[in-house]
Structure formats: structure tokens, C-alpha cells
Specification:
Blueprint: H1 5-8, H2 21-31, H3 36-40, E1 46-49, E2 64-79, E3 89-97, E4 102-108, H4 113-118, E5 124-134, E6 137-141, E7 144-147, H5 156-161, E8 163-166, H6 175-185, H7 198-203, H8 209-217, H9 222-253, H10 266-273, H11 280-293, E9 300-305, H12 311-324, E10 328-332, H13 336-350, E11 367-371, H14 377-389, E12 392-397, E13 411-417, H15 424-431, E14 439-444, H16 450-456, E15 461-465, E16 475-481, H17 486-501, E17 505-509, H18 520-523, H19 529-534, H20 541-550, E18 558-561, H21 567-578, E19 584-587, E20 600-605, H22 613-620, E21 630-636, H23 643-653, H24 657-667, H25 670-674, H26 694-710, H27 718-727, H28 730-734
Parallel strand pairs: 4-6, 9-14, 9-15, 10-12, 10-13, 11-12, 13-14, 16-21, 17-19, 17-20, 18-19, 20-21
Antiparallel strand pairs: 1-8, 2-3, 2-5, 3-4, 5-6, 5-7
Helix pairs in contact: 8-9, 9-26, 9-27, 10-12, 11-12, 16-26
Amino acid sequence: MDLVPALREPLKQPLKSVLGPATAKVMAEHLGLHTVGDLLHHYPRRYEERGQLTRLAELPMDEHVTVVAQVADARLHTFASAKAPRGKGQRLEVTITDGSGRLQLVFFGNGVHKPHKELLPGTRALFAGKVSVFNRRLQLAHPAYELLRGDGEETVEAWAGALIPIYPATAKLESWKIAKAVQTVLPTAQEALDPLPAALREGRGLVPLPEALLKIHRPHTKADIADARARLKWDEAFVLQVALARRRHADTQLPAVPRKPRPDGLLAAFDDRLPFTLTEGQRKVSEEIFDDLATEHPMHRLLQGEVGSGKTMVALRAMLAVVDAGGQAAMLAPTEVLAQQHHRSITEMMGELAEGGMLGGAEHATKVVLLTGSMGAAARRQALLDLVTGEAGIVIGTHALIEDKVQFHDLGLVVVDEQHRFGVEQRDALRGKGKQPPHLLVMTATPIPRTVAMTVFGDLETSVLDQLPAGRSPIGSHVVPAADKPHFLARAWERVREEVASGHQAYVVCPRIGDEEDDPKKSGRKKSPEDDAEKRPPLAVLDVAEQLGRGPLQGLRVEVLHGRMHPDDKDAVMRRFAAGETDVLVATTVIEVGVNVPNATVMVIMDADRFGVSQLHQLRGRVGRGSAPGLCLLVTEMPEASAARQRLNAVAATLDGFELSRIDLEQRREGDVLGQAQSGARSSLRVLAVIEDEEVIAEARAEATALVAADPELEGLPGLRTALDALLDEEREQYLEKG
């Protein structure tokens, strides 16, 4: 962050003064640390007290561990082996203890001489290695170790109470080697430029940055660590929020054409046709959007709404308002299935109002066109022509909308559906198609906790739709433990048959397609540890559909849908399912977003433990969309006590997406959630935790907004400007990539 010349100095350079070249190379390749500043911001994960040792009784298997312990005894054995046939092989076995348990260390061959001399009974040391099991006992083979020697002057108490920093390390570079490297560069922390304005820092009682860096790497007391972390959290939250506030500020400086609907135009005609009344939430959010559309600066709004809360209706009314005002609206969907679905549902909702320029079209009508990559040449040419002439007021499409060939007559509004699938570059490419920047509405059905919204979507204002429209039915969710209770699975298929018998339809969702390309056995891909543990690949659509058709669902009309089918075939399958000509659709997650078949009442998710919490919630939202109650069955073979089962129980227990997104976030690391929202592959959040530090983030956002309003160029804050440059190079501030 605070990079001044001394901190910008590369760790790996011809001047050997900083670190040895081998250490610098490992740091760059395995930990992403390139400069002195990077290393100073590589904070300890935890601290060992020499007096209070890591418990050997709780060592995790197969993990690299660092323990502090005392040698209980050491024995040198000789043995015969292929390499040393005359009994000259040597093995040193050292037993260490920390009072809670014992652990065996083993050294072989020429590696025994040094530890044999140094690891005498009573010696205390830091040991690091990978925990394995030999003869049913835990052991470390050839661990690296560092003897703990108190200097003459150090009293025993001070020595035993010292806090030893344990750093995030790799097999190639142990924690104490990182600690030594940090010790080498720590004096340069004095030159760190402070990104926080002095008034803010003093007002909140935060320590200066050089002091925080010293205290986090070399704390004398636990209070030092707390001071340092409090300060460094503020840096992370504040610098990120300033970057977002500057982006919001820059957007408010852009000109845009105000778009106000006509009182007797297309929107009014559409509202008159609606067979139902809008919910209070839909009305409120629509007002916020219409207010934004009427201003001379581009709207940037994130619309969060639970699955089925009526976001599409809100977006459609915004698009109609823009068409009323003489502009065009574009809706960007992440998949062809979804783009076709939106096109179908919007033209159905609009009826004759979508038949502009056609016989039988209403007087206020406009044309609604679809544009996807797989369209035939003639249809595509016509769609492009309708856009450039302004004949089409609304276009719905996939990434194909972003291509250079696509020209608009007057693009006034861009609606992006399922934001997390589009980077900012794509949003900006589409926005660049307007003569002036168009207004932007971003929609997501993945509920995002408030702090994550402030961190990841901090450049957007947020609206939330949290009530379901009338007529929506509750969804019952249950976990089906197929391994413990096979009869539960049999009952699940009976339930599907019962629903079909009463005139409804069902989805069966699988994690994999099952053709040659994605078969882990055949694709030569390395299997994940989970696959190994479960000894079988995830269930596949093609296999499951065949088994169901021959077995428990024999006689029902079963079809498959997955992402590698030809787009026309996909559309045909969806149309048949929507028309009720198919009883059961066996699909991958292509149905996760936006598929709307009110007659489908039951969903069985196979290998449900292979999906994330948010994904399960999204999938479940595909049932219960009509007047009949929905049922979602989560099938798993994971044992009762596993984390995966607990996750599924949480999904079954609540329909509140915001609650689930919190659970999801607590179980994953922040970095996954923020995706590439920060610099490069590593999340730049090292001490800030998005859920726990809600207050810090909210306060940092308020401070950042006020600061940028008063001094957009940050003239008086060189330290903050330097920190921003380090967080985002110039382009990255433009393209804070969204996770």
C-alpha cells in the first residue's frame, strides 16, 4: 500500500542486500511477495507464546505445521537396507513433547548428523514439517527446526512469554525463515508513508502506520497485536472505499440524457394491462429508479432481489420508461437459455405493445428483439438493422451485444442480469455504445450481505426487493441422506411420481453432464481430494436420466438439458418443458438462473453437497413459482457429522437468502467472495474480515465518501494516493474486477 522508494525496492535484485536470491525467488513464486513493502504487509497468521505451546495433541493430518516443543529423548538406530547393505543405514528418532502430547521426528541417512548433535534431551525448538502417520503414530519426517536459545541477559520469564509470529508459509519456505526475512526489512517500516489522513487517525485513536507494522511483526504484548490489527484493518477498508468513492464520484461527473416517461406513453399503457398490482417493494424500487433516470448523470444502481421477487418486472418498467423518452434499452443476460427466456417472458408480458411497426401492434408499441451468438445470419442482420434505425426499443441478448458490429440508434439504459457473471469491462464496453453514457441497472438474485455489497459493489447504489409477489407458494426443503437411509431416496422418487400424477412437473439437477469431455476418468484431469475421498465422480445428467427412465421414473416423459447442447436443441427442450409436454427435466445448473415454469413443483438435487449454498438457494427458487407449494429435496451421501451435511441442513432450514449468504460467506474465505475485486490473484484483504468488520467498513465508506467529495484528486494526501496506486494501477481503478 504505502510504497515509498525504500518499500518499493524489489526483494530479488542484483544487490544482494535485501534477501538471498533463493529466498526472494520462493517468496515471489509461492507467496506473491515481490517488494520490501509486500513483505511488510505479509502479516503473521497467529502467534505462539513460548511458554504456551501448540498442542501436539491436536495436530492435523497432512498439513504443514509449526510446533514449539521440547526434546524428550533421541535415539540413533542402525539398520540394513538396499543402499546400506552392511547395517550401515542410520535412522535418528527424536521424541518431542509439549505436555499435551508426544510426537516422533525421524531423520535418515546423512541427515542424522546435525540433529543428533543439536537435538539433545531438554532442548527446546520450533519444528516445522508435514504431519504423517507411521505405525499408527503421528510423526514428522525430516522436519526443519530452529533451536530456541535465550540470550544471557534474557530472563527466563521474558523469554518464555515472548510472542513468536507464525506466518502463512509454504512447504518451500518455513515460517521462521519468513520471520528472519521480515526482521531484515523491518527497519524500513519507519519510512512507510501513512495513507490515513492525520485527523481521521487521531480521531479514532489509531497508531501511526510504522508503529503498526512494528507491532504486528514484533509484538511484546497481546495489546500490541490488537493495536496493530485495528490500525491495519482501517487501512484496508479505507483505501478500498476511497477507490470506490472516486469511481462513484467520477461517474457523477459524466453527462447523461435524462429519461422521463410520458404520462400517456408506453409505460402507462403497460401498467394498464397488468393483471395484478405491483408489490409495495416493486413500487418503491421503481420510484428510486425513475428518480435516477430523470437526472443528468448516469444511474448506477444494483437491484438485489430474492429469487422470484419480481426483479424482471421492475427492470421492464424501467426499460419502457426509457423507450417512452425516445431512447433504447438493452438487457444483458449471462447465457443464451436465459436471454431466450427473458425475451419470451417480456414479449408475453407486453403482448401487442411488443409489436411495434407490425400490423396489429398497439399505437405506443415498440419492437423487442433478441440478439445471441448462435442466431442465423438473416435474423441477426435484421436485429442489427432494427437497433441502428431505432425501430427496436428493447434488445435482449448475451455477450453478443458487446461486439463491435452492434450499433444503437440511442442507447439510454443498460440492464445487466446476474451481475456476478460479468466483469466491469463488459459493462463498460456496452455502456460505451451510447452517444452519452447510458444509465445502468445491475440485477442479482444472489443476496449479498450489506458489507459485501459495500466492498464489492461499492461503486453502485443499492435497492433491495425483499417481499415475494402475491400468489407465490412456500417451498419445503429436506435433506435426503441416500447412504444412511436409502429408503428416503426411494420415497423421493415416489414424491416426484405423485407430483406428476397430479398434473405437475419436476426438475432433477446433477453436477455433471456425463459425456466424454467432462468425465474425470477420461479427461486426464487430476481428481480433487473430495473425489478421492468419495471414491466416485459426481453424478451426471446423462447417466441419471437413463437410470431414472429405466427405473424409478419409468413411464414418465424424461428429457435432458445441459450447456453443451446446440442452442436450438436447448430452446426446444425448454419450450416443451414450459408447455407441459415433458414431465421431468434432468439438467445441470443451466436452469439455475431465471428459468420460469410455474407448473414445476418439485426439484431433486443429486449430490447436493457438490454445490455452494447460494447456488442451492438459486436452484431451489425454480420451484414454487405458481400457486402449488414447492418441494426441494437435497440428496447427499455425505455422513451426518460432515461440514457438507451441516451446510445442506442450513439450506433446508431457511428460505432467507440473506441469512444463507452470510452462512456461505462464513464458510468460504473472503477472497473467494470478493473474487478478483482487488489487486491480482490475492485478495488484498489481509486483516479485514468482511462479515466481522461490518462497522469498520461502513465507517470507512462514510469517511471515504466525505473525503472524496471535498478533495476528489486527494491533493493534500500523498500517502493515500501512493496507497491507491499500489492497490490499483491506473487501469485497475477503472476495472475493479467484480467477483
